[in-house]
C-alpha cells in the first residue's frame, strides 16, 4: 500500500490477495487428501488450521465486499464469500464429529500462527441486512401498523370505569394539603439561608493576600511549562516503545486511516449507484425485445413440467457429493478474477459502477423471474391475511434490536492448557457467541450457504436464568432480518384448540415462515413441551407435531427452530433429543467475562469508572452470578439521582456488592444437574448426527 493508492484500488487488491490465499488453501487441502492421516490429533490440528485460514480469508473478503463500489465486483465477491462461509461450516462439522464437542480450544495453534483470539471472531456480513433493507423496513412498518390497530381495537372493547367526581369538601382538603406543602418548602429554603449566614459570620476573617512575588510567580510558571514539556517527551518515548515492541503501527503507516471511509458515505454512494437509471433502462429494453419470446418459452416449459410431474431428482446432499471434499468448490473459481477483472483496463470507468454487457446478463435473469411469476401465478395470494392473523394472535412478534456483539464475553485463555491436562474446561461466553454465529446467523443470512452447508434445523439454548438465552434469539433475528415466531407455552395456551386447530396453526406458521424467510421459530420454556407426564391438553400437545414440522423443512427453507430453557432436566429426553439437533449449554461467566461484563454494563448505563470502583474485586465476588443479575444490580444502583451525584460522589465497589447480596447465585447443585443432563443427552445422541455442547 502507498498513500497515493485510491481506496477502490486498495480494496480491489484486498480481494485479489484473499483470492490468492484461497487458491493456496484449496491446493493444500487437496494435497492433504492424497495423504490420509491416521493420528487423530494431527487430523484435528489440520482441520483447525484450515478453519483459522478460512476465517482470515472470510474477514478480508467481507471488508472488501462492503467497501467496494463496483456492483458487479461486489456480486462476484459475494459468491466467493458464500463459498468461504460454507466451507467454514463444513470444517466446523468435521471438528465437532472428531472431538464430540461443540467447543474447541486451539490457543496453541493461534500462537503458532502468531494470531490473537480476536482474529478468530466470526464477523457478521453486513450485506445480510443491507441487501434487503427496503424489504425489512416495509415489513416492520406493516407489523407496527397491525399492532397499533389491534391495540386500539382491543382498547375500544374494554369497559372504561366511570370516574367519580370529588365533593366540595374533598376538593378544599386537597388544595389545603398542596398549599401547606408549598409553604413548608419555602420556609425550609428561608431557614437554610439564615443558617448559612450565621455559619459564615462565626468563621474568623482571613487577611487578604497581597499575591506572589515576581520570583515566586516565575518559578510557578516554569514548573507548569517544564511539566508540560516532560509529559510530551514521555508520551513520545512511550509511543516509540510501543512501535518497537510491535504493539502499534509506525507513524508513516497511519496513512491507512485515509482508507477508513465513513460508513454512511460508502452506503450512500452504493445506494446512489444502485438507483441509477442505467439498470432500469437495460431492464426495460430487455423486456420489450425479449419479453414475448421468454413468455412463450416459459409457457412451454411449465406445460412440459406438468406432463412430467412424476420425475424425481436427487436431493442436494446427494448431488453435492460430485464436488469432492467440498460442496462449495464451484463458488471458489478464480476464473472471473484472472480472466475478467484482474487484467482488465478500467481507466475508462471513472465511476466504478458497472459493465453494460455484464449488466444485460444479470437483468435478463431478473426479467425471466418476473415473467415466470406472471405466467405461473394462477392461485389467490393469502400470505398477507395469514401474516396479519399470526400477529393478532401473538404468534408473530417484533424482535428486539440486539446485535450479536452486544453479547459481551471474553475468550477462554486457559482452555488449551486444561485440555492438555485432561481436564475439560468450562466454555466461555465468547465460545457461545461463536456458535450462535456459526449455527444461527451465517446459514440464515445466505440462501446458498443454507442450501449447501450442513443443515441445522433446530437449536436449543440451555442454561441458568439470566445468562442471555432470549437475547441471543433476538440477536439472530436482528443480524439476519428474520421474522420471529413465538410458539412458547405462554403464547399458544388457549389458542387453536384440538388436533385440527394445532395442525392449522403450525401450517400457517410454516407457510408464512417459508414465504417470508429468513424466519426464526422460538419456543421458550421448551421443557414444558416435553414433560415426563404429558396431559395432552396444554403446550405439550406440540410434542408429536414438532418432528413433522421439522421434516417439512428442506435445505432451501431458511427457517430455524430455536428453543430456550433453564430447566432442561425436567424434560423427557428421548423426544427432546429427537427434535433438537444442536444443544448448547450456556454456563455462568468466568472471571475474564465477568470483568469485561461489569465494565461494559456500568459504562452503558451512564456510570463513570474511577479508582474507587475496583472492577477486579467485583469480578471476583460475583462468581456464580449471571449477566442478567449484573444488569439488574447496575440498574438498581445507577438511578437518575445517583447519576446526577456522579461528579461529586464517585461510584464505589460496595454499592454493587450490596445488591448482589440480596440475589441468589447459580448453586453447585444446579450446575451438576446441567452436567448430568448433558451426559444423558450425549448418550442419547450417540448414533445420531447431532451433538451437544458439553462440559464436565
Report on this structure:
By secondary structure, this protein is mainly alpha-helical. It has three domains: 7-131 and 290-376, no CATH class; 383-588, Rossmann fold (3-Layer(aba) Sandwich), CATH 3.40.50.300; 591-665, Helicase, Ruva Protein, domain 3 (Orthogonal Bundle). Helices cover 59% and strands 4% of the residues. The chain has helices at residues 7-34, 40-67, 71-99, 107-112, 127-130, 133-157, 168-202, 214-244, 263-274, 277-307, 316-320, 335-342, 356-376, 383-392, 415-420, 429-445, 447-452, 469-480, 489-492, 498-515, 545-551, 573-579, 591-604, 615-621, 627-637, 640-644, 653-660, 668-685, and strands at residues 396-397, 458-462, 483-486, 519-524, 559-565, 582-585, 691-693. Strands 1-3-4-5-2-6-7 form a seven-stranded mixed β-sheet, with helices on both faces. Strand 4 (519-524), helix 21 and strand 5 form a beta-alpha-beta unit. Helix 10 crosses helix 13 and helix 16 runs parallel beside helix 18 (469-480). The two termini are 49 Å apart. Mean pLDDT is 80; it is low at 255-259 and 306-322.
Whole-number radius of gyration?
32 Å
- Low-confidence sequence ranges: 255-259, 306-322
Measured by DSSP, the beta-strand proportion falls in under 5%
Distance between the termini: 49 Å
Q: Given the structure, what is the number of helices? A: 28
Shape: globular
Key features?
single chain, 696 residues, mainly alpha, Rossmann fold, Helicase, Ruva Protein, domain 3, 3 domains, 28 helices, globular, ATP binding, ATPase_AAA_core
Chain-wise SSE layout:
Elements lengths: L6 H28 L5 H28 L3 H29 L7 H6 L14 H4 L2 H25 L10 H35 L11 H31 L18 H12 L2 H31 L8 H5 L14 H8 L13 H21 L6 H10 L3 E2 L17 H6 L8 H17 L1 H6 L5 E5 L6 H12 L2 E4 L2 H4 L5 H18 L3 E6 L20 H7 L7 E7 L7 H7 L2 E4 L5 H14 L10 H7 L5 H11 L2 H5 L8 H8 L7 H18 L5 E3 L3
Parallel strand pairs: 2-5, 2-6, 3-4, 4-5, 6-7
Antiparallel strand pairs: 1-3
Helix pairs in contact: 1-2, 2-3, 3-16, 10-13, 14-20, 16-18, 22-28, 23-24, 23-25, 25-27
